[in-house]
Design goal:
By secondary structure, the chain is α+β, with helices and mostly antiparallel strands. Helix content is 50%, strand content 19%. The strands form three sheets. Strands 1, 2, 3, 4 and 5 form a five-stranded antiparallel sheet that branches.
């Protein structure tokens, strides 16, 4: 596996997860603002007789004249909290009343304090309000954790899990590929290699590699016999030649050879597409077969 390609895919998955997460976070903020707006409208209409009667307007006007600047009154309101549909907002929300001069409309739109989310502004204009404008607005003190609780994080979570899973898979796959390349690079041009089937003989390292470049575990005598097969042009050896090469001076090595062949066959056949054949005990051959 190409490490650069694996890293690129991991980064794309991570970016997608964060992009969808940011979108869900923004949508949650919009839901909060919309809930504050609808709750404000219900509350103002329900308490209109208290806030918008003649005596209240005169009190607002007197307070504005007394202060000389726009006045804001904020407090928690049980009707406002009850009108909210998002339960986590009920304990962190409050309603604000902003009192402004009619000739200062620019003061109606106030900045939202840091850490808060605000709904729409509800304005009350009345010809008899003696020079003031009333602006109602709902606020909620929202931490990042609260907003995340209200966000739909299903898609970001799935993408993040995919990112982690792919990252782990790519790491081990690239590590394995790197190991194979190191083993392959060990077989340099100076190394004489002979390949037959899916086994390769490295005479310099005195070992056999399978198709995954992993060393085949053989005893010294098993390796010596396999090397004789690979160095033979026909891949066939007579019994006398094997006995003379492996056990020189031994008068009768037939039983020893038979034991060696019997133990070598399952090792070769279970790790390659080769198998050892016998010609009536006179000779042995190494042939291609199926694993």
């Amino acid at each position: 596996m190409n490490p650069n390609k694996a890293l690129l895919i991991t980064l794309l998955l991570a970016i997608s997860a964060f992009a969808f997460g940011y979108r869900s976070y923004t949508q949650a903020e919009q839901r909060i603002a919309a809930d504050l707006s609808q709750a404000l409208q219900q509350t103002v209409i329900a308490q209109r007789h208290l806030w918008l009667n003649t005596d209240s307007i005169r009190a607002y006007t007197h307070l504005q004249k007394l202060m000389g600047t726009p006045v804001t009154v904020s407090s928690a309101n049980h009707l406002f909290a009850a009108a909210l549909t998002l339960a986590p907002l009920k304990d962190v929300s409050h309603l604000s009343l902003h009192i402004h001069r009619k000739d200062e409309p620019q003061t109606v739109a106030r900045e939202t304090p840091s850490g808060y989310i605000a709904g729409d502004t509800l304005l009350y204009l009345n010809a008899d309000s003696e020079g003031v404008t009333l602006a109602f607005r709902g606020y909620a003190r929202c931490s990042a954790g609260l907003i995340l609780r209200l966000a739909d994080l299903t898609i970001p979570a799935v993408l993040m899990l995919c990112t982690v899973a792919w990252g782990v898979f790519a790491f081990f796959r690239c590590r394995r590929t790197s190991s194979v390349r190191r083993n392959t690079s060990a077989m340099t041009d100076e190394d004489e290699c002979i390949t037959f089937g899916n086994l390769t003989l490295s005479t310099r390292e005195a070992c056999f590699y399978d198709e995954r470049r992993e060393k085949l575990r053989l005893t010294p005598m098993q390796y010596a016999l396999m090397e004789m097969f690979y160095l033979s042009p026909t891949r066939r050896l007579s019994k006398p030649d094997i006995c003379q090469a492996l056990w020189p001076g031994k008068e009768n090595a037939d039983e020893t050879l038979y034991t060696l062949i019997r133990r070598l066959k399952p090792v070769v056949e279970s790790h390659s597409n080769l198998h050892i054949t016998t010609d009536r005990g006179r000779s042995y051959g190494l042939e291609l077969g199926t694993m």
